[in-house]
Amino acid sequence: MANDPIHQFRIHDIAGPWNILGHEISFTNSALFMGITVATITGVLLLAARKRSLVPGRLQSVGEMWYGLVHNMVDNVLGKEGAKFFPLVFSLFSFVLVANLLGMFPYFFTVTSHVIVTASLALFVVLLVVVVGIVKHGLGWFKLFVPHGVPLAILPFISLIEIISFLSRPISLGLRLFGNMLAGHIVLKVFAGFVVSLLALGGVGILGSLAPMAMAVALTALEFLVAGLQAFVFAILTCVYLNDALHPSH
Amino acid sequence: MARPAKPKTPPDPELGDIPDRLKELSSRLAQEKSTHAAQENPPRQYQGAGDYSKGYRLISEFVAGILVGAAVGYGLDKLFSTLPLFLIIFVLVGFAAGILNMSRAANRTSPTAEELAKMPKPTNDDEDK
Questions:
Q1: What is the pLDDT of residues A91-136, one digit of tens each?
Q2: Taking the model in full, what pTM does it have?
Q3: What is the DSSP string of A92-127?
Q4: Which of A138, A155, A157, A137 is nearest to A147 (CA)?
Q5: Residue spans per domain, chain A
Q6: Contact list, A171 vs chain B (CB under 8 Å)
Q7: What does the alpha-carbon distance between residue A154 and residue A108 come to, in Å, rounded to a whole number?
Q8: DSSP state for residue A138 in the 8-state scheme
Q9: Nearest neighbour of B96 by CB, restricted to A161, A230, A232
């Protein structure tokens, strides 16, 4: 029952399903938590920006650091012309970060532990790279797949590898976030489950349950780090990929 | 904001307090610079998880290459109904792409431990201009 480590990822309908244009569409717990994520981001940032004092208070500092982190990242990786993409990167970073952190609450659903969510985000980023690259550089953008200085004889082969390498970006981007969140939550649940089962044994079991308990505490700390880190990695890779769209020459 | 030291020299009749203001300005500049440097080097706190995520990142790049290669090969096979042929070829190409991805990611991530500490210039050499 409560010991099933996969149970936390189950999606169930909260409202619906409704039949919209022949599709079954319902409001699920995943959708609910995406809404909560967006509401949290908006709420916190609005609250942080409310006072606008010269010497920031605690909440305002959080907002400023949040903004500053992403701003620095975009500035460093993309340069000045990357400023256009700041809102996008900031939204992606905030969404992933807050979704990951919300998932750390007991009984909360982790939106980013579903591959469909992370893959959609990643696909969106990579498609954007293609669109921006073609709009900016026309067909010249495809030079990205033709590294210069390669002998003509093996060029087709190298291009093929480059193309596959490019295609694998959304997979690795989405898979990494998904895998980290899924694995982390499962491991956490498994160790927590050990504690419960050992406690149920009584006697020596109560003593023995201390070990997985310590592990679960340590893993919780690690998971918080991973939550932040993965959001950061997602954002910085978005920047690195967008950089390919802006400056396609390798 | 450390105020500059009180004027040591008596105020010059012509220059007024300009030397003092110059001194204040330079001290403010130095302070600005030091805070800027501090911003660029915030304490690294993600060190331990950094290694973990670095390994995970590399392996996911590699696996993604193979997965995409296999998917492309399988798709082509379905298209031309030559089942094992393109699958085999493209898994191998995907393997190569995975290695390429991984080496790129490793180049990109070598500063990752410091990434949070000091937003690195990306190792892409075309970035600066």
A1: 999 999 999 999 888 888 888 888 889 999 999 999 999 998 888 8
A2: 0.75
A3: HHHHHHHHHHHTTSTT---GGGSHHHHHHHHHHHHH
A4: A155
A5: 7-246
A6: 64, 67-68
A7: 52
A8: G
A9: A161
